[in-house]
Amino acid sequence: MSQATISNTKNGNHIQTKDSKSFTPSDIARIFPAQKKKALELRTSTSKDRITKLKKLRDGIFKYQSEIQKALYSDFHKSAAEVDISEILPSIAEINDAIHNLKTWMRPVHVSTPITLFGATSKLVYEPKGVCLIIAPWNYPFYLAIAPLAAAISAGNTVVIKPSEYTPHTSHVIQDLVKEIFSEEEVAVFDGDVHVSTALLEMPFDHIFFTGSTPVGKVVMEAASKHLTTVTLELGGKSPSIIAEDADLKLAAERIMWGKFLNAGQTCVAPDYLLIPKTKVDAFVNYAKLATEKYFKSKDDQFQTNADFCRIINSRNFARVSGYIDESVKKGAKIAFGGTVNSNDNFISPTILVDVPLNAKIMEDEIFGPLLPIIGYDTLDEAIGIVNSKPKPLALYIFTDSNKTSKYILQRTSAGGSVINDVILHLVNSNLPFGGINHSGHGSYHGHFGFKAFSHERSVLQSPKLSMPTLMYPPYTGFVRFIVNTTTKWFV
Which CDD domains does the annotation name (predicted)? Predict the structure, then answer.
């Protein structure tokens, strides 16, 4: 593994990273047609062929486990335990799910055929899309590169991965891991900054899988439209948590604080803001303080020395997130807990803000940091109105002991996914599609849904020598009209 990977610099048309390969437009021009050719070969690959590759990928992850842990600690102080929980374990789970189910997923699906096509048979055949581009983000840089890679391999594609330049150490581990398992004509990793992404987006890929912010997602979608390339966009947005009047406050506080401060809040499905009855704000804050201190075994002024609490990814994001605190306080919000920042270490402590005005910037942007703004409400419909005043979120969390209440909220809101009485865990279930809606994303993946995201669902109809439609060919004689009229009446 390359050891020194600190900065990316642009040198003419070359995108250079210290101690790593320099990628040029000629590299893209060389690898893309090679992958195109290889993709044609892979169309006939069997489930056994693909499972063999998935097993090699899984074995490679275990081999590189300590290197992955070190890389993520170097990139943003992520502890080894959190790396295992949030990066390695879910990657292995995705691969294992594909290994166990791929043979079934690849089988043609036979569907019924209408009486008007009597004698014909119909089926759906899943075929690889071809050459796929995966653009991974920095917040879970390993898992969000490997999980879609596993899905793309399962579907029989060739792949180009563009990891984030914000996590260079992790990008290099991914590069080393992939090189050890695959030839570049099958899977290639392109390191570098936005110029590499821009150059890649100019190529006519057969599918683009992007995880990142909504503004960049729009750029990706625009680039894809020039080639009419299909896209899966895993974006974000402001994912609310609604606590109903009858909710268990202690349970809600423990689960929301875990989800909010995991990865220092840099999670696309982190609870972004909390809506709670005004009369329960103080009690919730007390429970939230206790839960947060228990998780990190730290008091408010000691989080910076805790090994289990990671850092904001870089100084730019530190300035953005810490700025939300300052702007909110100026507009009347109060810091109920936390608020400690240190620019030398890109550190922001777990922070809870109350009395946050709805026009504060923290209530407009996706936070992507360890800040939880709390909004008190008088009626549940008021809370629902706040949610619906914003673009559709990636996730919505509901805390209530009443099925009637949860159903009421679900029917009156829209989100990519929802969890009742917990947070984030819906993405762990590979039997559920994970994805957003409109502003928060297009398409979904995980498990079978990931296989389908990287596959074309091809319809195949096989007609017999003598079929019903042949009886309706011209000339339109009285007999043909009789057949048409009789067939029409069958549908009445």
Answer: ALDH_AlkH-like
pLDDT bin (cut points 50, 70, 90) of residue 22 is low
CATH architecture assigned to 8-235+445-456: 3-Layer(aba) Sandwich (3.40)
User: What is the three-state SS of the chain?
Assistant: CCCCCCCEEEECCEEEECCCCCECHHHHHHHHHHHHHHHHHHCCCCHHHHHHHHHHHHHHHHHCHHHHHHHHHHHHCCCHHHHHHHHHHHHHHHHHHHHHHHHHHHCCEEECCCHHHCCCEEEEEEEECCEEEEECCCCCCCHHHHHHHHHHHHCCCEEEEECCCCCHHHHHHHHHHHHHHCCCCCEEECCCCHHHHHHHHCCCCCEEEEECCHHHHHHHHHHHHCCCCEEEEECCCCCEEEECCCCCHHHHHHHHHHHHHHHHHCCCCCCCEEEEEHHHHHHHHHHHHHHHHHHHCCCHHHHHHCCCCCCCCCHHHHHHHHHHHHHHHHCCCEEEECCCEECCCCEECCEEEECCCCCCHHHCCCCCCCEEEEEEECCHHHHHHHHHCCCCCCEEEEECCCHHHHHHHHHCCCCCEEEECCCCHHHHCCCCCECCCHHHEECCECHHHHHHHCEEEEEEEECCCCCHHHHHCCCCCHHHHHHHHHHHHHCC
- Helical pair 47-63 and 168-181, crossing angle rounded to 10 deg: 130
Tokens encoding 317: 């994001």
- Rounded to an integer, what distance in angstroms lies between the CA atom of residue 54 and that of residue 281? 48
C-alpha dist (Å) from residue 417 to 233, 396, 399, 433:
15, 7, 15, 8
Q: How far apart are CA 458 and CA 203, in angstroms?
A: 24
Q: How far is CA 381 from CA 244, 275, 276, in A?
A: 11, 11, 12
Domain 8-235+445-456 and domain 240-431 have a common topology: no
Give the burial class of 198: count Cβ atoms within 10 A of its Cβ; 0-12 exposed, 13-18 middle, 19 or more buried: exposed
Number of neighbours of residue 10 by Cβ within 10 angstroms: 13
Model pTM above 0.90? yes
Q: How far apart are CA 20 and CA 39, in angstroms?
A: 27
pLDDT band, very low/low/confident/very high, at 6 (cuts 50, 70, 90): very low
Domain ranges of the chain: 8-235+445-456, 240-431
Catalytic residue positions?
A: 234, 268
Q: Give tens-digit pLDDT for 273-315.
A: 999 999 999 999 999 999 999 998 766 667 888 889 999 999 9
